[in-house]
Amino acid sequence: MTDKPVIVAALYHFARLDTYRELQKPLAELCCKAGLKGTLLLASEGINGTVAGPRAGIDAMLAFLRARPELAGLEHKESFADAMPFYRLKVRLKKEIVTMGVPGTDPTRIVGTYIAPEDWNDLIADPDTIVIDTRNDYEVKIGTFENAVNPETATFREFPDWVRRNENALRGKKIAMFCTGGIRCEKATAFVKSLGHDDVFHLKGGILKYLETVPEAQSAWRGECFVFDERVSVGQGLAQGTHRLCRACGAPLSPEDLRSPDYRAGVQCGHCAGTMSEADRARFEERQRQVELARERGTRHIGDGSQPGDR
Questions:
Q1: Which residues are identified as catalytic?
Q2: Where are the alpha helices (DSSP H) in 92-196?
Q3: C-alpha dist (Å) from residue 20 to 88, 93, 96
């Protein structure tokens, strides 16, 4: 996959970053000059984001960040795309780099035990281990690990309440958590350990590192992994998956969903058909009409629902 022209770099690092506001402008300027697009979030607790672009641009951004003592240990994961999977660059200031909404949760002070991808299968096969998918419900539905618990959360903010409701079931068990790239489960393990649970683990590098590292024949992963860019999902070896986005409600759609009689490209899918107002439907229909006109002219319309592999 290294012959693909666009490198997609997912990164995060928890650190005390008191000067995060002053970092925003020079980081944005560097990324623009380097030809990068995507989103980077800055907060007093660190940095999080995914950007894409040429090799030299990605390297320049990483060198800039790692030159700061607080971010010297920043790790990143790379995958590849045929075309740019983002439309613009955003460098934003936030209260949290991943929003859980529990003040005082600090992964730099207390955190679970990292488990390398090659050791993950043994941990989750242990009958005394409860495996928890910390992602949102729409992500879990398109792929997860065998026998993983789905908390059925709409946002990460709901996860702490789910843990509190299930404290008795978790007590005394090994708790293994995972997420897309590692950031959500790192914060989740910090929260769970703060409640007094001792044997708390999380998958180092997240699902993306697992799919990159563990051979398909040995993989305990089932389905595809949702990613927050125009690729929508990736599979084994981080190859682009088969899912597409509904441009009305944002749900990831499987090939079966795309064949539903309720599916209308750019307008609705089986998940949102019948739920939108007439005004919304008219707006989506007009947007799709403009998309189709742009395609006829040989241009690509932002938000048209096409994916890198569609062209």
A1: 179
A2: 117-125, 137-140, 159-165, 167-170, 183-194
A3: 21, 8, 12
* Measured distance CA(51)–CA(183) in Å, rounded: 16
Contact 180, 225 (CB under 8 A): yes
∠ CA 248-40-137, nearest 5°, is 45
Pull the structure tokens for residue 133: 């998918």
pLDDT at residue 1 in the model:
44
At 188-238, the pLDDT tens digits run 999 999 999 999 999 999 999 999 999 999 999 999 999 988 899 999 999
> Residue 208's CB: how many other CB atoms inside 10 A?
23
Q: Is 216 helix (H, G, I), strand (E, B) or coil?
A: helix
* Identity of the amino acid at 32: C
Quick check: 305 pLDDT over 70?
no
Q: What pTM was estimated for this model as a whole?
A: 0.85
Residue 240 and residue 308 in contact, taking contact as beta carbons nearer than 8 Å: yes
Enclosing H/E stretch for 222: strand 221-223
- Convert the pLDDT of each residue in 34-73 to its tens digit: 999 999 999 999 999 999 999 999 999 999 999 999 999 9
